[in-house]
Design brief:
E2 component of the 2-oxoglutarate dehydrogenase (OGDH) complex which catalyzes the second step in the conversion of 2-oxoglutarate to succinyl-CoA and CO(2). InterPro entries: 2-oxoA_DH_lipoyl-BS, 2-oxoacid_dehydrogenase, 2-oxoacid_DH_actylTfrase, Biotin_lipoyl, CAT-like_dom_sf, E3-bd_dom_sf, PSBD, Single_hybrid_motif. With about 400 residues, the chain is an alpha+beta fold. The chain is built from 12 helices and 19 strands. The strands form 5 sheets. Strands 9, 12, 15, 16, 17, 18 and 19 form a 7-stranded mixed sheet that branches. The protein has a 4-stranded antiparallel sheet with strand order 1-8-6-3, with no helix packed on it. It has a 4-stranded antiparallel sheet with strand order 5-4-2-7, with no helix packed on it. Helix 8 crosses helix 11.
């Protein structure tokens, strides 16, 4: 029985997608739920699985093709068995050499950057699937073999060093990078964006974390980080300042009765912002588990559209890359975004005494069409007060 392989139904905000790669070729046997083809939208890479066991009989849309929701990608025959290749009798090892394990999107990109093939990497995922961590392990093992390679075949190294060529490489933007560029330009051109700054003394929070992190991890099976405290503080502040949690829709202002906070995460494909839903009702353990789960899915290229859709407020942490200060750009249609930065010891005045404290600059970019300066400054000051005195988060004062 013939079965059609269709493009998954895309959200209304996503017009089309691009076929990235086929994991199987015509004539190959496939198992139910085995990944047949990967397609890339503006936000995520979607895996299209086989609906049943059978044989792939036709590929309609090749890699690089643009497709829309429910468009025919290919066909397969359900229940069929692939014919054994004639070369198998003369050379039994050939089929095994041709059969490559499935590769996660993030792993495939890293392999290409390091000139590795599937044969160079040992997959640790399900059914030998190659994950990003497997590629990283293979890359880490390469330097040990480098001296022998250079000694036995120095010509390539000399050629590269002696050429002196001014190299350029032109590559098309990925759909995600193009979408990021489009949204950033839209935010700059269509909003009255303004940024206000403050600084936070991180010592109380760091002391609390040092005292309770082991007990927290033992009880909740999650590590206690700084982000969960900032998310919780933001959720409290958003409820006190509803305009910061609002958005513009035409001539209307939409006030959201929930705090869906997006956490900006850097992935191999670019910046993505998975959403923590109803953070106003979440505890620190729930927030930490949610962030860890999204981080793992981003590394493996497993984020889906539901993870990235919506959001009423965003937090981005440039401090993990060493940023001391920045002005984050709004994530439309949200009216504000909080930027965290690196923690540095600086001299500050406490009780008329100059002391050394671990300080963090924070920035709030906001849409001045909705949020007035007083509201933005007070909102950021509220986050500062909550983080500097974490007990206030528990007492809600």
């Amino acid at each position: 029985m013939s079965s059609e392989i269709l493009t998954p139904v895309l959200p209304e905000s996503v017009a089309d997608a691009t076929v990235v790669t086929w994991s199987k070729q015509v004539g190959d046997s496939v198992k139910q739920d085995e990944v047949l083809v990967e397609i890339e939208t503006d936000k995520v890479v979607l895996e299209v699985p086989a609906p049943a066991d059978g044989v792939l009989t036709e590929i309609v849309q090749q890699a690089g093709a643009t497709v829309i929701s429910s468009q025919l990608l290919g066909r397969m025959t359900v229940g069929a068995v692939a014919a054994a290749p004639k070369a198998a009798e003369a050379a039994p090892a050939a089929p095994a050499a041709n059969a490559e394990p499935q590769t996660a999107p993030a792993a495939r990109k890293l392999m290409a950057e390091n000139n590795l093939s599937a044969a160079d990497v040992e997959g640790s995922g399900k059914q030998g699937r190659i994950l990003k961590e497997d590629v990283q392990a293979a890359v880490a093992s390469k330097p040990a073999a480098a001296p022998a390679t250079v000694a036995s075949a120095p010509a390539p190294t000399v050629a590269v060093a002696a050429s002196g060529a001014r190299m350029e490489q032109r590559v098309p933007m990925t759909r995600l990078r193009a979408r990021i560029a489009e949204r950033l330009m839209y935010a700059k051109q269509s909003t009255a964006m303004l940024t206000t700054f403050n600084e936070i003394d991180m010592k109380p929070l760091m002391d609390m974390r040092a005292e309770y992190k082991d007990a927290f991890e033992k009880k909740h099976k999650a590590k206690l980080g700084f982000m969960s405290l900032f998310v919780k503080a933001a959720a409290v502040a958003l409820q006190r300042f509803p305009e910061v949690n609002a958005s513009i829709d035409g001539n209307d202002i939409v006030y959201h009765g929930f705090c869906d906070i997006g956490i900006a995460v850097s992935s191999d494909r670019g910046l993505v912002v998975p959403i923590l839903r109803n953070t106003e009702n979440m505890g620190l353990a729930d927030i930490e588990s949610g962030i860890a789960g999204y981080a793992a899915k981003a590394r493996e290229g497993k984020l889906d559209m539901g993870d990235l859709t919506g959001g009423t407020f965003t937090i981005t942490n440039g401090g993990v890359f060493g940023s001391l200060l920045s002005t984050p750009i709004l994530n439309p249609p949200q009216s504000a975004i909080l930027g965290m930065h690196s923690i540095q010891k600086r001299p500050v005045v406490v009780n008329d005494q100059i002391v050394i404290r671990p300080m963090m600059y924070v920035a709030l970019s906001y849409d001045h069409r909705i949020v007035d300066g007083q509201g933005a400054v007070t909102f950021l000051k509220t986050i500062k007060e909550l983080v500097e005195n974490p007990v206030r988060l528990v007492l809600d004062v």
